[in-house]
Here is the input.
Amino acid sequence: MGQLLLTALTAKKSLDLDYYRLQEYEDEDGDYALYRTAEEVAADGKVSTRDSCQRRINARCGGLLEIRQGRADFLHQSVQDFLLTREMNDYVLRESEPNFKVNSSILKTYVYSFRKSIYKSTWVPPEEHALWSEGLAYANDALDEDTDTALTLLDGVEDIYREISTYRETFLGRVLSNEHDFHCKMFRAGVDRYVSLKLKEDPAHFDQVSESPLLTAMKTYPWSQGQIGIVRQLLESVTDPNRGRRQTPWAFFLQLTCQSEDAHHFTMALQSSLFSEFIRRGSRVEVKILLNHEVGLPYTRHRMDLGLPITHFLLALFRYDNTHRLPRECIHALEDFADSNIELIPLEIAEGLPLLQHYLNLLADKPLEPGRTRFLAQVIRKLFTKWKPSGSDLTVLTPSILEAFPGATGIMLSNMISSPESTEKYRSHQFQAKRPHGSEEADMCARKRRVHDRGC
Here is the structure.
């Protein structure tokens, strides 16, 4: 009973009755998932064995588990909550076999089911890809429980993908991407423990002819912590972030993080210091990368269709609304960009003035949180103190700065790029432009009234 309940508690979702039936094979042969013969695999799945498994579940866990549409699930959510309490969880563990590794056991059932589903097949159908992706949800926990067993299971499935690829190459005369599909599944599931172990054995294990593994690893939406770990591990290996056929991983990373519709990837990259990691691993900060106008960037001169990596990063700081919640990470990444190639920064800022002015104007159109105002002011202050572009007329930004940052903050920033006299001149002009018609006469009447009141 203990193993059945522990499996149901650990499952990411209710499991098919077949998975509980397959667990019974483990008592006879712990290596059944990979080494059961092809004939046995093909003949498996008789209705009688499913019925007997259902009777055993009802006899051992009646009132706790029930079979609904061929799946074993808890009778009610309150049953699961009760079994998850510390006292009952300890009881379930005591009732299980001492060496029972629940995640490894579930992973074995998925490996066996995958082998059975593609028996005598020359390709992996989409539904079986989905089946294996579902099983990979248990891979990291299985590697924590029993590294050797889980590694053997995952290597076995990789061999299956590789054999199918070889078979199709021999008879159809072309190389297919089954092995590449296996790596994609591992990356998408965030099985960073497996990636780490394989990279230690062979840094080129995930290399592909068609695409950089680093680029493959980043093409997963949305990112998880496991996927972030895989990207870092690939960067730490010999993977070159500047190598790519159509697009380099470095260019894809910048476009994904800095030019997406939402800030999910940008935020995760900041929190995990991925910008700094890419720079430390030799990413070329002097190469200009295409700016994506589909996310609201204005079309300007032709040369602004390309921008240095720091331009992408700066524009993301202004575009996304939540960047001020990670001020330390943003400033740290900004300084890493600058330190990597500081002589290019003033030139790039000068070329990016139209885009910077565009985003300052957008900020003026909507009220900002005080924290965001302070953060963006800090970014601008750092830009024009440490990397003030020489030979550029920065006074064109004065109106936009004073509109975006009203009050003392705007005056301070404006004084950094122009003289205090010119700032005050513009503010006076701005104030006069905003005064309603006839305000001069009203001011004169008010002054006369104050003089009269003092005289009285």
Q: What stands out?
A: The longest strand covers residues 65-68.
